């Protein structure tokens, strides 16, 4: 018997990590401080969620303000990185509900657990350190925006994870995230399932606009989904 799914790729903030939107609040503050704007968190989340953060700033500027200025975006990004490092030092950050329980279940079943993120590697690793999550123990790999030439919605991060574990067929991979762009990433990679979760940036209606295979409210719902998928695809 062969499992149909042997890797689950998880987004971090809003999906497996509960950081109360620290990243996007910090991003909003950097944009408003440098540019003199008054963008709301809702506006920032609508255009920035899940993206590599410099690209996220450029997207927010273009879509919310009709501003196309790379030098301005870079100044905002520099302030964002500085302020985010401080925020992570002082703010409380927790595993998202049932994340660690799900990681343990997947490990027991021999399914790889990969984190991927629009953060750069330094930021992502500082987040793992604060959560006391260890690569090789709590999760099997961390793939970040700074590890690949193209970021979401391109599938490069998922493809890199597959290469790392010598998985050649994306039909053995599931992607889950809390933003539209997470779903699009999984779809572009050809994943067996692209799943949205309502614990982060985008609500159920926004997630459904990307035509995911499922929209869930709790990470443990993944267990039943995988069981159904593996039963229907198991080969002898």
TrEMBL record:
Under InterPro entries, the record lists: HAD-like_hydrolase_sf, HAD-like_sf, HAD_sf
Give yes or no: UniProt keyword Cytoplasm.
no
UniProt keyword annotation of Cytoplasm present: no
What are this entry's molecular-function GO terms? phosphoglycolate phosphatase activity
Q: Name one Pfam family in it.
A: Hydrolase
For this UniProt record, give its keywords in alphabetical order, as a comma-separated list: Hydrolase
GO cellular component labels: cytosol
Q: Which SUPFAM superfamilies does the UniProt record give?
A: HAD-like
Kindly give the Gene3D superfamilies that the UniProt entry links to this protein.
Answer: HAD superfamily/HAD-like (3.40.50.1000)
Q: Which GO terms describe its biological process?
A: DNA repair
Q: What is this protein's record name? A: HAD hydrolase-like protein
Organism of provenance? Sphingobacterium paramultivorum
